[in-house]
Design goal:
- It is a single chain.
- The protein is an alpha/beta fold.
- Helices cover 41% and strands 17% of the residues.
- It contains seven helices and six strands; from the N terminus they run H-E-H-E-E-H-H-E-H-H-E-H-E.
- Helix 6 crosses helix 7.
- The longest helix is centred in the last third of the chain and has 21 residues.
- The N terminus is likely disordered.
Length: 237
């Protein structure tokens, strides 16, 4: 009898240890609002699946959302759901909390879009700003989804200036140095992954995006952070 009691105690201890592990998932979305006809836009159902609540009902989750426009600093929507221990938790109550969390994510992503017209696009600095926030958590698994064509149009760099396009096409190392100079404070991280989501509509858009993609690959290689590209969240990335 004692043998079985010891086995049960050990099993409970192992289960408790598993529950105590930090399994927090952070999903951040930056949505480019400088164009009104992007094909790839955030889909609430696809974003929600990234939290993995179908497999682990008790893990913690954080969702951040911000919009990219002419400004560097924009407000962020932030919601979170804390971790619970399966042994001590109420499953029905937990499912209700997860459902509420998912509904909040959906409401944030589906709220009315800004109809303003923007003459400039600040892409890189808002990404840097968000990375600085995400890197403060050195344990959680973080994914930053950037829904954008990456077409920077600011005073310091613009894809609409001939001289800057020349840098992009022929002097990328110098351009990388320029971008990195504006990303000081970003530390290498194996816990952060950046996913750029964009689907070109024309050959010209595709050609420009491929050049910007090469730039970003080089940038994130230098920063020590993983980056991937996809046309939509249904794609294998």
């Amino acid at each position: 009898m004692k043998k079985y009691i010891y086995i049960m105690v050990i099993g409970l201890m192992l289960s408790a240890c598993a529950d105590s592990e930090n399994t927090n998932t952070v999903i951040s979305v930056l949505e480019d609002m400088t164009e009104t006809d992007f094909v790839a836009i955030p889909d609430a159902k696809e974003i929600i699946t990234q939290f993995g609540y179908e497999k682990n009902l008790w893990s913690s989750a954080t969702f951040r959302y911000g919009r990219i426009n002419s400004l560097i600093h924009n407000s962020r929507d932030l919601i979170s759901l804390g971790q619970e221990k399966a042994l001590l938790g109420n499953e029905l109550e937990r499912r209700r909390l997860v459902a509420n969390f998912n509904k909040d994510v959906e409401d944030i992503l589906n709220k009315p879009k800004d109809s303003s017209t923007y003459n400039h696009s600040s892409i890189w600095l808002p990404i840097v700003e968000e990375l600085k926030v995400l890197q403060k958590d050195s344990i959680s698994k973080c994914k930053l989804y950037v829904f954008s064509d990456l077409q920077e149009n600011t005073r310091w760099f613009s894809v609409f200036r001939v001289a800057d396009i020349h840098l992009l096409e022929s002097q990328r190392d110098a351009l990388v140095k320029m971008f990195l100079g504006k990303s000081q404070g970003i530390m290498p991280s194996k816990f952060i992954e950046v996913i750029v989501v964009y689907q070109p509509k024309t050959i010209a858009e595709d050609e420009l995006f491929q050049k910007l993609k090469q730039l970003y690959v080089q940038l994130f290689s230098s920063l020590g952070i993983s980056i991937k590209f996809t046309a939509n969240l249904n794609s294998k990335i």
